[in-house]
Amino acid sequence: ELPATLVMRPFDFDTLATQAYTLASDERLAEAASVSLAIVAVGLLPLIALSRQISHARR
Fold this sequence. Notes:
Largest sheet: none
Helix content: over 70%
Distance between the termini: 39 Å
């Protein structure tokens, strides 16, 4: 997925994934870690919401 994203993205437009990849490939790991944690945090929000809905529906 990431190579296709890198090839097909518009010029001067970086997603969090492409930014994390670029920073990691430049060995700027501390900066890549913060971007990667942002990706995880954004992914956790829908999971938390779904988990609450499922647990509320079971009650």
